[in-house]
Amino acid sequence: MSNPLKAPGRPLVGTWINLVRNPAVLTLLKSSGLDYARVDMEHSSPSVETVADMAVLARALGFPLVVRPPAADREWVTRLLDVGVTGLHVPQVDTPEIARTVVEAAYYAPLGMRGMAVNGPHNDFRADTPLAELNEQVHITVMLESREAFENLDAIVGTPGIDAVTLGPADLAQELGVRGTPDEARVVNEHRSVLIDAARRHGKDVAMLFNTVEEARPWVEAGVTLLAIASDVAVLQAGYSAIAAGLRAPVNGSCTPSAALG
């Protein structure tokens, strides 16, 4: 099984799953034309059992499932990969040492030293799957979310085994003291550009979160290839808010049902 996230060749569009727990949501998202889905375990409530169910379905669909673990540590990296997840979106990678720890836990030798789960969802219960083939399925994105991370920019981005890089716009803005100020968008966008330049130097892909298609378009032109547009929460809330507002708004020239019948 190949991983479409690796060297995609074109922009891939996904979304965050923060709320929906039914694995069938992956079928819905794929049928809607999305290329992948990303589940948030850092700021949302899904259990590893829920993620495991989603991972098995995602593999059957050929629809990449990316998961953001709660932390950049061996326990989470290994466990999520062993239940069948093929993409990790790892938060708080502030140093090259953390980046190397993630790679070490995610890949089998010679790329890393991942713990040996001999037979399970990660190899579709085919214990004879070559380790090189399993390594090719793994896709690692690391998140730079702090001043320290950008001070270590090239060392982190250049880490062998890291496929893509991104930033955490809200956490970064908070640490830089611009969260909620008129300077927030400018400062975050400056860091986006710096990150894209570093990724280009080291031959890595760039992943970014955007709220709207219009917000994303210029960054696609700038070189972002892994796009996450909004989330299940944002899409549901915006959709139902528009429905509620539309039905409650007065319509020019409208008449009452009784007048219309009459």
CATH superfamily: Phosphoenolpyruvate-binding domains
Class by helix and strand content? alpha/beta
Number of domains: 1
Q: What's the main sheet like?
A: 8 strands, parallel, barrel
CATH topology: TIM Barrel
What does the average pLDDT come to? 95
**Termini separation:** 65 Å
Q: How much helicity do the residues have? A: 40-55%
Low-confidence runs: none
The number of strands is 8
CATH architecture: Alpha-Beta Barrel
Task: Indicate the overall shape.
Answer: globular
Alpha carbon gyration radius: 21 Å
Amount of beta strand: 15-25%
Please summarize what this structure is.
By secondary structure, this protein is of the alpha/beta class. It contains 12 helices and 8 strands.
Name the descriptors.
262 residues, alpha/beta, TIM Barrel, 8-stranded parallel barrel, 12 helices, 44% helix, globular
